[in-house]
């Protein structure tokens, strides 16, 4: 809620054109990725050998699309298979990220480094989060 | 705290650059304290350079690793732990790049110390090495000070880290419970530290790649001529 408010505020107060608002939002995904994810998954989403799965070209993203908001929020440490390789390691959860942030972050990783996917809406992500185990 | 830890390699790097202007870059500096000892016979005083202290570790294959393991070789040392959520993946990923370029060179070895010996048992280290793609590598050691559950294992690895100019210590605030920085230490065939590099800075890793051959060439001049043929 606060974020949405801040988002609106920054749009109106700066009185900048709409595209600027969208682009700053797009940058939020990239910023979040750099701050919270890149140390493990790499600058290019390449992962690290068989310790950390890649995000670039990962079949997991499409196969488990609806579960990804919960995966990011709660972390993941059960063994998982990405591109045919089994990983068993710990990914910490991001309990503090809002639905809006998760949406921007997922849109970023799902449409970068050669990945392509339908953009997510905050609404959709909120619904998926409500169904987290 | 962390900020202070990160200053170390920067300082060391400043030292190095101060010592190696481009035209004299043929020889890497020897880092650390030096001792000037007058000679009993009145001849010119000897300068004694700091060396890595004696250590005894166990690697992922259960083999004992000591200073002797690296006699006549250069090695790159770093400090990590298997469950490290912070800088380790990045750091080990960078060392993997160095390994890809120089790993086949018989004059060079790699030594990654766990700073979490209580968790990182030999099987954990073996699994880690395996998953890093180093399962078959004989010259990259993933080593612990606590193979037999020695109670002082943690203290001894922190002391060792300090000797390699790497800051590592338990810290409840840090991700994973340890604060450490991602320093790579380049050690020569005689146990002197010849370079310190911040693995989180791509420029520093490039510098390591550039300086490594300079050290290897210097080591070759120490080999007896017969051995070089």
UniProtKB/TrEMBL annotation, chain A:
Pfam family, one: Cytochrom_C
Cytochrome c domain location: 24-113
InterPro entries: Cyt_c-like_dom, Cyt_c-like_dom_sf, Cytochrome_c-type_DH
Regions crossing the membrane: none
Keywords carried by this UniProt record: Heme, Iron, Metal-binding, Signal
Taxonomy, superkingdom: Bacteria
Keyword set includes Metal-binding: yes
Region forming the signal peptide: 1-22
Name this polypeptide is given: Cytochrome c
Organism the protein comes from: Hymenobacter jeongseonensis
Taxonomic lineage from the root: Bacteria, Pseudomonadati, Bacteroidota, Cytophagia, Cytophagales
Automatic annotation (TrEMBL), chain B:
Listed Gene3D superfamilies: Glutaredoxin (3.40.30.10)
Signal peptide: 1-25
Keywords, sorted A to Z: Copper, Signal
Domain of life: Bacteria
Domain Thioredoxin residue range list: 46-214
Recorded family membership: Belongs to the SCO1/2 family.
Protein name: SCO family protein
């Amino acid at each position: 809620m606060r974020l949405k408010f801040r988002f609106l505020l920054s749009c109106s107060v700066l009185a900048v054109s709409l595209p600027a608002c969208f682009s700053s939002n797009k940058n939020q995904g990239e910023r979040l990725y750099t701050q919270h994810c890149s140390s493990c998954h790499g600058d290019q989403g390449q992962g690290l050998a068989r310790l950390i799965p890649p995000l670039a070209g990962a079949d997991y993203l499409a196969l488990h699309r609806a579960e990804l908001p919960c995966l990011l929020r709660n972390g993941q440490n059960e063994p998982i298979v990405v591109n045919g390789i089994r990983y068993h390691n710990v990914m910490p959860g991001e309990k503090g990220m809002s639905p809006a942030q998760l949406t921007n972050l997922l849109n970023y990783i799902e449409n970068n480094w050669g990945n392509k996917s339908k953009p997510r809406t905050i609404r959709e992500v909120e619904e998926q989060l409500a169904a987290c185990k | 705290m962390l900020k202070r830890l990160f200053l170390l390699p920067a300082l060391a790097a400043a030292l190095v650059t101060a010592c190696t202007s481009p035209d004299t870059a043929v020889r890497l500096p020897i880092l650390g304290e030096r001792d000037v000892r007058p000679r009993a016979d009145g001849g010119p005083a000897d300068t004694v350079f700091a060396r890595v202290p004696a250590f005894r570790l166990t690697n992922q294959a259960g083999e004992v690793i000591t200073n002797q393991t690296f006699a006549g070789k250069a090695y790159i040392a770093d400090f990590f732990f298997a469950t490290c959520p912070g800088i380790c993946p990045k750091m080990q990923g960078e060392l993997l790049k160095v390994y890809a370029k120089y790993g086949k060179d018989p004059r060079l070895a790699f030594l990654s110390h766990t700073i979490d010996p209580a968790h990182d048992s030999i099987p954990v280290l073996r699994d880690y090495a395996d998953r890093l793609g180093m399962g078959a590598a004989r010259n990259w050691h993933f080593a612990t000070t606590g193979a037999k559950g020695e109670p002082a294992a943690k203290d001894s690895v922190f002391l060792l880290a300090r000797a390699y100019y790497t800051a590592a210590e338990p810290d409840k605030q840090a991700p994973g419970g340890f604060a450490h920085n991602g320093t790579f230490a380049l050690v020569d065939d005689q146990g002197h530290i010849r370079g310190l590099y911040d693995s989180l800075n791509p420029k520093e890793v490039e510098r390591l790649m550039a300086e490594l051959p300079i050290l290897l060439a210097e080591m070759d001049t120490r080999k007896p001529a017969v051995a070089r043929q």
